[in-house]
């Protein structure tokens, strides 16, 4: 049985200087965690990994 997964991570940020004293900042992030050992090697179906 081959097990393959991708732990994705992404980030995007922007800064706009209105004046020397004020600025507006915006951030967007996305992450996905790697499966834990007890999820990867579950004996039977496991909801978190959608394995059967």
From TrEMBL:
It comes from the Bacteria. One of its GO terms (cellular component) is cell outer membrane. Gene3D superfamilies: TonB-dependent receptor, beta-barrel domain (2.40.170.20). InterPro entries: Beta-barrel_TonB_sf. It is found in: Cell outer membrane. The keyword Membrane applies. Its main location: membrane. Keywords: Cell outer membrane, Membrane. This is Uncharacterized protein. The lineage of its organism: Bacteria, Pseudomonadati, Pseudomonadota, Betaproteobacteria, Burkholderiales.
């Amino acid at each position: 049985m081959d097990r393959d997964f991708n732990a994705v991570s992404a980030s995007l940020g922007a800064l706009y200087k209105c004046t020397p004293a004020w600025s507006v900042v915006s951030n967007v992030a996305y992450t996905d965690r790697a499966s834990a050992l007890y999820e990867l090697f579950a004996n039977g179906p496991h909801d978190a990994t959608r394995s059967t």
